[in-house]
Amino acid sequence: MRSLLFVPGHQGTRVDKALACGADAIIVDLEDAVPAEAKSAARVNAAAARGRGRVFVRINGVHSELWRDDLAAVVGPGLTGIVLPKAESADEVKAVGAAIGVLATSVGLDVGAMEVLPLIESAAGVEALSAIARSSPMVRRLSFGVADYSLDLGLSPTADEAPLAYIRSRLSHVSRAAGLAPPIDSVVVEVRDGARFLDSARRARAFGMAGKLCLHPDQVALAHQVFTPGEVELNWARGILSAWREAVARGESATTWEGEFVDAPVAARARRLLGDDYVE
């Protein structure tokens, strides 16, 4: 889940291109990117995308009159999950999860196989993060939307994204405490500015986030560049684990590797980086 690429649901050819661009997942949008008169066509295209990859659908928010019809149109075999915009309470997530459950059960689907991805886009959503994270077993990770969040708080965009430090930190802490996967960082609206995207993604990763929402196919490879461990990192992790294993064999609780202090937490970070399938 390094890259999740938004695509307007009413533009069928763009949905096809998004599916072929190499993103870890696509998000077929039924909300902000789709005009009112095109909602029905967007639902048809979203349903047609199911099963062709890892496909999420961003429905309209629960305060609209559209979200139940959105779910009725798109819940079916091959759907990875639902993105819930402007999530502000556990009750909202539970309502969406319950509606998905009814629809999935009616067609014989395993409800547990589907995910609800809450999109935090307001101060109220941030305040309710802990409850949202624990609201449903369908919630497996969190994300946030920078545009609406900045509007809600009256934030001014800055090149260093300093105003986003709080929400990034909160998302990572709450996700960890709730046992969720690391959160997904927001979009970068400057779709032609690759350097801006890379800087943003690197900051997000430094805060413990695992991937990026993307607005343009060109951003997908950049997200993968940042959120895929490079050979330098992997060699560091291998060296740390090798030194740690030798220290443990000597009955020691700490050691050094190339001048770096190594103890149990450092070794655990190295193992996490290498993955569960790494054989020492």
| Rg over C-alpha atoms, rounded to the nearest angstrom | 20 Å
**SS summary, helix count:** 12
Proportion of residues in β-strands:
5-15%
What is the CA–CA distance across the termini?
26 Å
Shape label: globular
- Give the rounded overall mean pLDDT: 93
Give the CATH class of the largest domain: Alpha Beta
| Total beta strands | 10
Spans of at least 5 consecutive residues with low confidence = none
Largest sheet: 8 strands, parallel
Element order, helices and strands? EHEHEHEHEHHEHHEHEHHEEH
Side by side, the strands of the main sheet go: 6-5-4-3-2-1-8-7
CATH-assigned homologous superfamily of the largest domain? Phosphoenolpyruvate-binding domains
Question: In percent, how helical is the residue content?
Answer: 40-55%
Remind me, CATH topology of the largest domain?
Answer: TIM Barrel
Class inferred from helices and paired strands? alpha/beta
CATH architecture level-2 label of the largest domain:
Alpha-Beta Barrel
Tally of domains: 2
Kindly describe this structure.
Helix content is 46%, strand content 14%. The chain is an alpha/beta fold. It folds into 2 domains: 3-227, TIM Barrel; 231-274, no CATH class. The strands form 2 sheets. An 8-stranded parallel sheet has the order 6-5-4-3-2-1-8-7. Helix 3 (67-74) links the parallel strand 3 (55-58) and strand 4 (81-84). Helix 1 (12-19) packs parallel to helix 2 and helix 9 runs parallel beside helix 10 (218-227). The mean pLDDT is 93.
Short description:
Helix content is 46%, strand content 14%. It is α/β, with parallel strands linked by helices and 280 residues long.
